[in-house]
Known about the structure:
By secondary structure, the protein is mainly alpha-helical. The longest helix has 67 residues. The chain has a domain of 49 residues. It is elongated and about 75 Å long. The chain has 1 helix and no strands. The chain is 93% helix and 0% strand.
Amino acid sequence: MSIGIWQIxxxxxxxxxxxxxxxxxxxxxxxxxGIKNFKTGMKEEEDLEESNNxxxxxxxxxxxxxxxxxxx
Length: 72
């Protein structure tokens, strides 16, 4: 069951009635800002995870090098 053109028209009409023509651009702008902030937050989280993984790998390599030098 997919959404048809009449369902979209009905949803748009309800939104227009609820918010009015004057508030609609502001509401849509706020929605766009929210989406942008969400995407930015997700990207920052991925970058933070990646940097933490890189630090973990470098610390692991240092530990391996220390073990090798002690056994030699």
